[in-house]
Specification:
The chain has about 350 residues and is α/β, with parallel strands linked by helices. The protein has 15 helices and 11 strands.
Length: about 350
């Protein structure tokens, strides 16, 4: 599994299937007048990075999370709407992977941003949802970290008898369980289920001693005299890499191949902007997260954004790399009582859906 942690690449050239048309985004590095965090209120002028397809009339319920990656750029720039002008696209905000699991469980989503651990949980009993992973938004590094309040705590071993807050079912939860298991502290540290928006308040009330969490809460805790002692990059080194993925229901994906083709091209453009035009991408991240542009650019350093060509390669959708990672995640979660049981057969190995990526990769 360590082979799934790629060398950090910035500025890798991306060639979309219709690259000859170029990207005609009428944007600047500054936030445009009238721009808000609600896509329906965005007043900017933009164009699809490839030839728009008005024949696509799909209705899609898409969930997003406040994570600085290409999906957030796509949402902010309304690229899906520009490329499929006759489609009916609804954006729904989720606060954590646990929320996504519940939404998939109630059949109220078609596609969602979700961590590698939550998507495995959703595919496992008792939900056993038939989900497909369709894109890797990012490989998580130090953007998810264990932040500690006591300045005298310098390592995880010092956390014995302390309490850690983390959103259960998230990639951060998976990384925390991995680290605690490796240190032999699984029974010696209290772990409390807290949503990201509740962690800061619990920290300020001294209800927790530490938290494993992502941005922007991570920076808020660091500003409250916290310091980091571990990150998801460290847990990846223990053989447990984590990803922010995008998953969809098998029924939706199967029924909408043209939508999925265009959706994939648009996601590839969001990733290209992050890697090749980070200042432009950071403008979208800043707007969507409600932070300053400079802070948004700093957030990008905690992630690796695999390009379209890299995702089509053997480490991910073009081989068994992603399938192996999902299977190993499931095996670890069941050993830690994170899921009730493993899904039957080769369910996890069949989760990566690379057809659309293969179809648009030059």
């Amino acid at each position: 599994m360590n082979s799934l942690t790629p060398t950090r690449r910035r500025g890798t050239a991306l060639r979309l299937a219709a690259a000859s048309l170029g990207v005609i985004l009428a944007l600047s590095g500054c936030v445009q007048s009238g721009r808000t965090t609600h896509p329906d209120n965005f007043s900017g002028e933009l164009a699809c990075p490839v030839e728009p397809d008005p024949s696509i009339t799909t209705s899609a319920r898409i969930a997003w999370q406040a994570i600085p990656n290409g999906d957030l750029v796509v949402k902010d720039l309304q690229l899906l709407e520009a490329c499929m002008p006759e489609a009916n696209i609804s954006w729904l905000k989720m606060n954590s992977g646990g929320d996504v699991i519940q939404a998939f469980g109630s059949d109220s989503l078609d596609i969602s941003q979700v961590g590698s651990s939550p998507v495995v949980k959703a595919a496992s009993p008792p939900l056993s949802k038939d989900l497909k992973v369709i894109w890797i938004s990012d490989v998580i590094g130090d953007a998810e970290s264990l932040v500690v309040k006591d300045p005298n705590i310098e390592s995880l071993a010092d956390m014995s008898g302390r309490t850690i807050g983390v959103p259960f079912g998230s990639t951060a939860h998976y990384s925390l369980l991995t680290a605690l298991g490796e240190e032999g502290l699984s029974d010696d540290v209290g772990v409390i289920n807290l949503a990201t928006d509740a962690i800061l308040a619990a920290w300020q009330r001294d209800e927790i001693d530490a938290a494993w969490v992502w941005e922007p809460t991570l920076s808020e805790l660091l500003a409250e005299q916290g310091h980091t002692i571990l990150s998801s990059e460290d847990s990846a080194g223990l053989g447990a890499p984590t990803f922010d993925l995008i998953a969809g229901t098998d029924a939706f994906i199967t029924a909408n191949p043209e939508f999925m083709r265009m959706w994939t091209l648009v996601q590839a453009e969001g990733t290209r902007l992050l890697n090749e035009e980070p200042e432009l991408a950071a403008t979208s991240i800043a707007v969507q997260l409600g932070v300053e542009q400079e802070d948004a650019q700093d957030l990008l350093d905690g992630y690796i954004y695999p390009t379209l060509e890299e995702q089509a390669g053997a480490d991910y959708f073009g081989g068994d790399g992603l399938a192996t990672a999902l299977t190993s995640t499931a095996e670890f979660l069941v050993s830690q009582d994170g899921i009730d049981a493993l899904a039957e057969g080769s369910a996890y190995r069949e989760m990566p859906y690379g057809d659309a990526i293969e179809g648009v990769t030059p």
